[in-house]
Design goal:
mainly alpha; two-stranded antiparallel sheet; 2 helices; 11% strand
Length: 72
């Protein structure tokens, strides 16, 4: 069965945009996981002007939040 990835993507991006707007925040990282013939592929997208160490720092903070640890 083919996954309706285009519909899922549009719905999630719209929902996340509302959340970011409410938080007065901008996106800095997007993680995508492949489907169908691309199952298991991982795609990480960041703005062109982001420094690699800054992205690593954001990922570390995000992981702490996901694991329930303290965060700002």
């Amino acid at each position: 069965m083919t996954v309706p990835h285009d519909r899922i993507t549009l719905e999630r991006l719209a929902r996340w945009r509302r959340i970011l707007d409410k938080a007065r925040a901008t996106p800095v990282l997007l993680l995508g996981i492949g489907h169908d013939e691309h199952t298991g592929e991982v795609h990480v997208l960041v703005p062109e002007d982001q420094d690699e160490l800054m992205i690593i720092g954001f990922l570390q903070l995000a992981l702490k939040q996901l694991m329930g640890g303290p965060h700002p």
